[in-house]
Specification:
Length: about 220
């Protein structure tokens, strides 16, 4: 395990212990407010949880369409670099691929649109591990307008671990990597699910079918 990954896990576990005392990273007043507010009202109060990896960027001109907002096709582009940065932070990125000849591919994705984004908006994107098994990783991204403080969209990936080949072929996540990801997922599981999460679809086939189909 690299020093940066170990530091990330230790810091996350420290915040997890702190969260066990406070309930979550939000203040009691904020938690009470959020319990009463509608999704529309919550957009004005949303902030990223510090236990999740965060990545900032600005909306570029080429993402803007004739309606003068970010076109729907670019919301997955908005999570590309945050996903890569999180994988590198977890030692599951560029160095891991070079060292092992393994990586992961996206099997499915979904975007839930909540509020539009405009040219020049400053975005903050969080990445969390929702769940994993011996081959798959389920990731959730929150796309936040940092300056205005609202949740603009959610995106999710289902990925599968592969050996690069050629040709690429699915394989089990190495034990040391899976152990590391499970520790990170334990931290992320303490973060409340974002508004709009009820609109997320279930990704992937039933686990029993998946196991039979990939033997």
């Amino acid at each position: 395990m690299t020093h940066s990954v170990a530091k990330y896990i230790l810091e996350g576990e420290r915040r997890l212990r702190a969260g066990a005392t406070s309930g979550n990273s939000r203040t009691p007043a904020m938690a009470k407010l959020m319990a009463k507010k509608s999704l529309s009202e919550l957009r004005l109060f949303y902030r990223a949880d510090p236990r999740l990896p965060q990545y900032e960027m600005a909306v570029p001109r080429e993402w803007i369409d004739g309606n003068k907002h970010v076109n729907a096709c670019y919301y997955l582009a908005a999570v590309k670099d945050p996903a890569l940065a999180a994988h590198n932070e977890w030692d599951y990125g560029v160095e891991f691929r070079a060292r092992t000849g393994q990586s992961n591919f996206v099997l499915e994705s979904q975007v839930v649109h909540i509020r539009e984004l405009l040219l020049g908006d400053r975005l903050l994107v969080t990445t969390r591990i929702l769940e994993l098994d011996d081959k798959r990783l389920h990731l959730l991204f929150e796309i936040i307008n940092k300056r205005e403080g609202y949740l603009a969209a959610l995106a999710q990936y289902l990925t599968i671990h592969v050996t690069m080949g050629p040709p690429p072929k699915s394989c089990a996540i190495p034990d040391d990597l899976r152990s590391r990801l499970e520790r990170i997922q334990a931290i992320h599981s303490q973060v409340p699910m974002p508004p709009g999460a009820d609109r997320l679809k279930r990704l992937g086939p039933p686990k029993r079918f998946f196991k039979e189909a990939t033997r």
